[in-house]
């Protein structure tokens, strides 16, 4: 049996659902200048909000104006918690102001009150794929040490204002995406940075990471000073990378590939840089702005829990240069977006991370993006139920058979919203269907899917129905 306090819920992010991108003093965020894409066409990052472009996050699903109706539906599913993020640009529209925007603060007050009215605990990410666009253009985003100060102003205002309403916080969403510098999406959404031609990209990437580690550690310290009961987590993308074969070289390639994921949690959980990364810096002559004081801050700011997302696994095959090639796993099926469906991978990663760190884990994202069909005002999403059920069963095995400590499970996503990678609403993940045409017309367009009833039952029985 799962602990009776197990936090069942659903996950979202402000920029992907709120809309109201320029309402009540909100500033432009880095997500507001990303155009719509698709599975075959990447999103573009424009140098401001340009006429004639389509920016799906501007309206998103208009959660900003519909949150009461949506929360009521989540309460019907018996949610114990709701993972969401605070849009930095609602609180500090440009990012470097001295005083926060009261209207933005008030919005989250109202939202938290509405959740708490139903006994739903907010679980809040401070920085989920967005930051003030102004900080990116004026200061160069997280290339700049000053970002630590701006982030801390934001974090402290939030902790102080909401300490009585929010206990679980996370600092940076999927911080370890930064390691993948090939895709401009990662540094843009994670750090407000676009790498320049001729730049030492690896060095800039490690510098960004370092400043964010310092900021995250300072946030942990600040939160505890405000209220020692607050629980602050890191948040990583933990798709396992298996060896492509049982050749020893492939196994080693998989270990090294996973080191790139774990580098981030090693720092945020253990409070020290792992030995391997120092070797990389020496080898590649990486020069960082990194002081002894920073290292002390990082040491003193270890997180309380490890939040992570799990969607898919992949494999690593050793190549001639001592590097690796990422290859799909031939043993597992794929979604329409090519994402591997591997429930056992969730149990595997829960075991691996728990053995590595011996800290409470929180599965703050897991889910199935699919095209849903609205027929007779109903959505039969059995494929999503199957995906989620298989993953929940593996999670329960990790808790009940393997002794892993899991705080909760918040699948992505509580409700359909804008896909981060492609900017579509058509890549749907939610328990609640969003009829965007109706919502745009100001009508009610939120329809529970079959997975809604399934999840309601799972939460009601605390997983015992599976
Ligand atoms: C995670 C992000 O990477 O995956 C979410 O934290 C994102 O913001 C989710 O939406 C699913 O990815 P996508 O690209 O299908 O929306």
TrEMBL record:
In Pfam terms, one family for this protein is: Glyco_hydro_1
This protein's source sits in the domain of life called Bacteria
Keyword Hydrolase present in the record's keywords: the answer is yes
**Single GO molecular function:** beta-glucosidase activity
Q: Which UniProt keywords apply?
A: Glycosidase, Hydrolase
Question: GO biological process annotations for this chain's record?
Answer: carbohydrate catabolic process
For this entry, the protein name equals 6-phospho-beta-glucosidase
Q: What is the lineage of its organism?
A: Bacteria, Bacillati, Bacillota, Bacilli, Lactobacillales
């Amino acid at each position: 049996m799962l602990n009776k306090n197990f936090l069942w819920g659903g996950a979202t992010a402000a920029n992907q659902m709120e809309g109201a991108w320029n309402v009540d003093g909100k500033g432009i965020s880095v997500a507001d200048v990303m155009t719509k894409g698709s599975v075959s066409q990447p999103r573009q990052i424009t140098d401001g909000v340009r006429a004639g472009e389509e920016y799906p996050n501007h309206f998103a699903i208009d959660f900003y104006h519909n949150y009461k109706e949506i929360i009521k539906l989540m309460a019907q599913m018996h949610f114990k918690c709701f993972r969401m993020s605070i849009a930095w640009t609602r609180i500090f529209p440009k990012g470097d102001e001295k005083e926060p925007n009261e209207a933005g603060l008030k919005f989250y007050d109202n939202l938290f009150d509405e959740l708490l009215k139903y006994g739903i605990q907010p679980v809040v990410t401070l920085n989920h794929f967005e930051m003030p666009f102004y900080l990116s253009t004026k200061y160069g985003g997280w290339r700049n040490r000053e970002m630590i100060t701006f982030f801390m102003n934001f974090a402290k205002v939030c902790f102080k204002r909401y300490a009585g309403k929010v206990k679980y916080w996370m600092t940076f969403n999927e911080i370890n995406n930064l390691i993948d510098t090939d895709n401009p999406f990662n540094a843009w959404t994670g750090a407000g940075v676009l790498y320049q031609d001729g730049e030492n990209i690896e060095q800039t990437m490690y510098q960004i990471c370092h400043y964010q580690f310092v900021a995250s550690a300072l946030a942990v310290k600040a939160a505890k000073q405000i209220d020692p009961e607050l629980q602050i987590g890191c948040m990583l993308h933990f798709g396992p990378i298996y060896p492509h074969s049982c050749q020893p070289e492939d196994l080693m390639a998989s270990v090294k590939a996973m080191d790139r994921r774990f580098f981030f949690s090693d720092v945020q959980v253990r409070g020290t840089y792992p030995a391997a990364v120092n070797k990389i810096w020496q080898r590649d002559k990486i020069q960082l702005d990194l002081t002894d004081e920073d290292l002390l801050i990082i040491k003193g700011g270890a997180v309380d829990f490890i939040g992570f997302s799990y969607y898919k696994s992949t494999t690593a095959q050793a190549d001639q240069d001592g590097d690796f090639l990422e290859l799909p796993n031939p043993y597992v099926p794929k979604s329409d977006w090519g994402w591997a469906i591997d429930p056992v991978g969730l149990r595997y990663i829960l075991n691996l991370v728990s053995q590595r760190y011996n800290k409470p884990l929180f599965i703050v994202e897991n889910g199935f993006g699919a095209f849903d069909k609205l027929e007779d005002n109903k959505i039969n999403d059995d494929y999503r139920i199957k995906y989620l059920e298989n993953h929940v069963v593996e999670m329960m095995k990790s808790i009940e058979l393997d002794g892993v400590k899991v705080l909760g499970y918040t699948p992505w996503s509580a409700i359909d919203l804008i896909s981060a990678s492609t900017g579509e609403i058509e890549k749907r993940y939610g328990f609640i269907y969003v009829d965007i045409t109706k919502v745009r017309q100001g009508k009610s367009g939120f329809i529970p899917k079959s997975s809604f009833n399934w999840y309601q039952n799972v939460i009601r029985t605390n997983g015992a129905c599976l």
